[in-house]
Specification:
195 residues; globular; alpha+beta
């Protein structure tokens, strides 16, 4: 901490808690926007090497590790299914090392969206509908060493599924889902054998 004396006024220019909170909030908002269009290098700037995404349990196996590569894999998974992926930020609150971001995620379903089970197996694949969606979410992030080290979320997945026509599915869409799931499982099997 350093003090500056100028014209008999004592000023403390050390960072305040407000500065620290603002920096943490800005970091977490940036992390949300990087999901839409960030590069791995950009993820490495803001995601801690030991970062954990608690939401990866339904995501591809490559998202289940720790650090920037796993978070970037989540971004690629979302971008592969949703064109024009965007996050409109509504509110950001910080307390201690915890930051909460309330946002609306939106996009257009243009690629197969694949859901994975606890062991990384394909459980369901949703073929593209071409429909748009916009649903609210709340993302919780813990910050350490000026980087995101933990993430979890509350999302309106049912609202997303309804807007995209996944539920209730038409008989035709059910048949398309079955075919997309079969293809995704074959691709996953080839990928596993190739490793």
């Amino acid at each position: 901490m350093r003090f500056i004396i100028d014209d008999m006024t004592l000023v403390n220019d050390a960072p305040t808690d407000d500065d620290t909170m603002r920096g943490a909030k800005d970091l977490c908002v940036r992390s949300m926007h990087l999901m839409a269009d960030g590069t791995l290098d950009q993820f490495e700037e803001i995601v801690h090497a030991e970062a954990r995404n608690r939401e990866s349990k339904d995501e591809p196996p490559e998202t289940r590790g720790r650090g920037p590569e796993a978070f970037y894999a989540t971004a690629l998974w979302l971008r592969g299914a949703f064109d024009g992926l965007a996050f409109e930020i509504h509110d950001v609150v910080a307390e201690g090392d915890l930051v909460v971001v309330h946002n609306t995620m939106s996009g257009r379903h243009t690629g197969v969206f694949t859901i994975y089970g606890p062991n990384g197996e394909v459980t369901q694949a949703m073929p593209p509908t071409g429909k748009r969606f916009a649903t609210t979410q709340t993302h919780w992030m813990r910050v350490e060493d000026a980087k995101v080290i933990e993430h979890w979320a509350n999302r309106d997945d049912q609202g997303t599924a309804m807007q995209l026509g996944w539920i209730p599915p038409s008989p035709w869409y059910l048949a398309k889902m079955a075919l997309a799931t079969r293809r995704a499982r074959k691709r996953a099997g080839r990928h596993t054998r190739a490793e």
